[in-house]
Amino acid sequence: MRVERIDVIAIVGGCVPERRDYASRLAGLTGRILIPAARLEAVPDPIEEAMMLAPWCLHPAGVVIEFPSASAMPDLVGALADEAGPTRLAGVVCVVDAAHLMSDLARESFSVHPALTRLAGRPVPHALVAVNQIEFASMLVLVNWESLDTDELSTVMSLLCHLNPSARLRVDHGGELAWRSGDAYTTEQVRPGWVALLGGAHDPHMTDPRVSSFRYENVRPLHPARLERLLDTRIEPGEFGLIVRSMGFCRLATRPHVVAEWNHVGGVISFDPLVRDDALGGDEDLLAVGQDIGFTGIDLDRAALSRALDEAALTDAELAAGPGEWARFADPFPAWQSVPEDAD
């Protein structure tokens, strides 16, 4: 006999007092039991603890779980939305501090909390945690917005819609809440804006003249040394505008048979191996031939940035020289300890 799954609304966000307040109000509005972050933050794995506690909250309306800041969103969604598990993930609310959003997404510090480093095997950028909370949410609730002028508020709201075009955006006035449950989550998510960009379905419902997103593609591998110079001397200083988020797939010429994940937010970027070409089955398509990256930012010069990225790719002569010659190129990026046999 199948056990009834308990309905869960997850509350996330780095603004602790406002997150706590919203979780409490939402639990009262929906008649759900509240599991506060204070109950989870002292354990090594808050998500695992939440999965153990949720089935004991036997209430017809379900439960609201306020998660600590150190919670990995892919793990959270994967655990709570698993159809074989005890929970049904009805929604994820991300409480966003409007006054500190840009500084949160520009942080260059790292967290060593075991809940975040378990899968990565290394410290995780705080900015990546913040942007993932936005990208995986079904509702974005803006707090502390009163100090922003009209233009600043418009830019912040548009940026959120570009980072996650499928989420509902609400400005919190501190009073009665308007909650509407949408479709339950599945373990496969298409909410992040970069996924929508690569899929040709990016359609943010709020726009601002300063905020834009675009998809960059180039089939030629990147020259690692030229890419590093581009990142350090042109992109990071803001020559092409403020790139808030870029994510997708790329290939380095010195590692030509591996598709890598391009993962950038604020001042932090990483390149991690995803899959080897020779590990694909006969009926499997390449994850990416060259570069396929979604960019979102403020005051972006799309044409100039695209040209600069093109210049970091191999020239005609370099491409014709072949992988044997590419292996001689300077490669300043960290070596990959291992390459997965297939993509996850």
Report on the structure:
With 344 residues, this protein is an alpha/beta fold. The protein has helices at 16-30, 46-53, 73-80, 101-105, 114-120, 126-135, 150-163, 193-198, 224-235, 302-312, 316-321, 323-326, and strands at 6-12, 33-35, 63-66, 87-97, 110-111, 124-125, 139-143, 168-171, 211-218, 242-250, 258-265, 268-276, 291-298. It folds into two domains: 6-195, Rossmann fold (3-Layer(aba) Sandwich), CATH 3.40.50; 210-326, CobW-like, C-terminal domain (Hypothetical Protein Yjia, Chain: A,domain 2). Helix content is 31%, strand content 23%. The strands form three sheets. It has a six-stranded parallel β-sheet, sandwiched between helices. The radius of gyration is 21 Å and the shape is globular. The two termini are 32 Å apart. The model has no long low-confidence stretch (mean pLDDT 90).
Question: Which structural traits does this protein have?
Answer:
344 residues; alpha/beta; six-stranded parallel β-sheet; five-stranded antiparallel β-sheet; globular; CobW-like_C; P-loop_NTPase
Q: How many domains make up the coordinates? A: 2
Just give the CATH class of the largest domain: Alpha Beta
Instruction: Count the DSSP helices.
Output: 12
Subunit organisation of the chains: single chain
Tell me what the CATH architecture of the largest domain is: 3-Layer(aba) Sandwich
Question: Order of strands in the sheet with the most strands?
Answer: 2-3-1-4-7-8
Largest sheet: 6 strands, parallel
Output the CATH topology of the largest domain: Rossmann fold
Number of strands: 13
Ranges where pLDDT stays below 50 over 5 or more residues in a row are: none
Order of helices and strands: EHEHEHEHEHEHEHEHEHEEEEHHH
> What gyration radius follows from the Cα positions, in whole Å?
21 Å
